[in-house]
Amino acid sequence: MNFTKILTPLAIVVFTVGAWQAFQWAGIALAVGGVVMWVLLHFTRLVTILKKAANRPIGHVASAVMLNAKLKKGVNLMHVIAMTRSLGKLLSEKDAQPEVYTWTDTSESVVTCTFVGGKLTEWTLARPEEPNP
Predict the structure, then answer these.
(1) Same structural domain, 119 and 64
(2) β-bridge mates for residue 28, sequence order
(3) How does pLDDT run across 52-102, given as a tens digit for each residue?
(4) Same domain, residue pair 23 and 64
(5) Is the same domain home to 62 and 116?
(6) Are 32 and 17 in contact (CB under 8 A)?
(7) Same domain, residue pair 97 and 115
């Protein structure tokens, strides 16, 4: 179970109640201002990541081997997009679980990532076979 979906609203409510008890209406204004600032920071990060990814080809990464080394289980799709600075090429059906994305580099190495509920569960690196001399 993802506790951040429960703890974040709970923390906002506790923060707001504490602000009310300490400063009355001025505390509520302070709490609302803090929550709005927090939401705007996340929104700005999201827009910045997507703006950088919009200027790159879909499914392309500088080095698939380095991406494979940096990936960790449980990171979200937006974190992987920020690392690759590119939107992944969707291999699965749209809006179906699990979501499967690929990123390819110039040497034709491919990293295939599987996301369940927006979190990375597994990934594989496929490198092209070297021709025999």
Answers:
(1) yes
(2) none
(3) 998 889 999 999 999 999 999 999 999 999 999 999 999 999 988 999 999
(4) no
(5) yes
(6) no
(7) yes
pLDDT band at 132 (very low <50, low <70, confident <90, very high): low
Q: In what order do the strands lie in the sheet with 110-116?
A: 89-90, 99-104, 110-116, 119-126
* Cβ atoms of residues 121 and 92 within 8 Å: no
Q: Are β-strands 110-116 and 99-104 bridged in parallel, bridged antiparallel, or unpaired?
A: antiparallel
Kindly report the average pLDDT of the chain as a whole number.
92
The DSSP code sequence of 77-113 is: HHHHHHHHTSPPEE-SPTT-SSEEEEEE-TT--EEEE
Query: What is this structure's pTM?
Result: 0.80
pLDDT at site 58: 93
Helix (H, G, I), strand (E, B) or coil at 18: helix
**Is 28:19 a contact under the CB 8 Å cutoff?**
yes
Q: Which domain holds residue 22?
A: 4-53
